[in-house]
Amino acid sequence: MMALSDAEVVRLRERYAAGARQVDLATEFGIAQTAVSAIVNGRTRAAAGGPIATRAPRPAPQRAASSPRKTLSDEQIEHVRRRVAEGDKRAEIAADLGISRHTIDSIISGRRGASAPKPLSDDQIRRIRAAAAAGTSQTRLAQEYGTSQQVISQIVRRVTYAHVT
Q1: Which of 5, 36, 57, 79 allows an S-S link to 22, with CB 3.0 to 4.6 Å?
Q2: What is the rounded CA–CA span in Å between residue 128 and residue 133?
Q3: At a CB cut-off of 8 Å and minimum separation 6, what does 99 contact?
Q4: CA–CA separation, 40 vs 52, rounded Å?
Q5: Dihedral angle, C-alpha 142, 148, 153, 155, nearest 10 °
């Protein structure tokens, strides 16, 4: 690849403004598509001249009106957790409840459906640390204690509950 002259940069920008695709311009001018993007958007060679592409702001994503977020009750969330613990397939649980598999995963991981975190006792903290030291997975401990893996990780690393020995 060779550097483009200012005249070539202007011609490239004009062709892009007229509707040419970046990949086609890259082939034509013998440069990478990422270089074309940088040139047409003015991130490089801004002083060379020619029309600089301006982006229209992207609209915020809208949730489809046909699929509003479903609010699950605490009982439904516990039902999901119980069925997963019993070995039911997550896709089947999701279909039964009319929710996505992603929602099931979010409930199990603690990203969704968790009410205010319950404080753990000093004895529970000691048991968590002992079980983790013995090789129990943080995910398993999170399920057992009704919290997230991240909370267990912070306990094990003594980021939280550092006073408990």
Answers
A1: 36
A2: 9
A3: 70, 72
A4: 6
A5: -80
SS3 content of the chain, % helix, strand, coil (to 5): 55, 0, 45
Please check whether residue 40 is in contact with residue 16, taking contact to mean a CB–CB distance below 8 angstroms. Answer: yes
Domain chopping of the chain, boundaries:
6-48, 74-109, 122-156
Do residues 55 and 17 touch, judged by C-beta distance below 8 A?
no
Does the CA dihedral 140-141-147-150 come out positive or negative? negative
Q: Are 22 and 16 in contact (CB under 8 A)?
A: yes
DSSP class of residue 118 equals P
What's the rounded Cα separation, in Å, for the pair 150 and 138?
A: 8
Residues of the chain with confidence (pLDDT) below 50: none
Ramachandran area for residue 88 (φ above 0: left; ψ -120 to 50: alpha; else beta): beta
Alpha carbons 129 and 117: distance in angstroms, whole number: 18
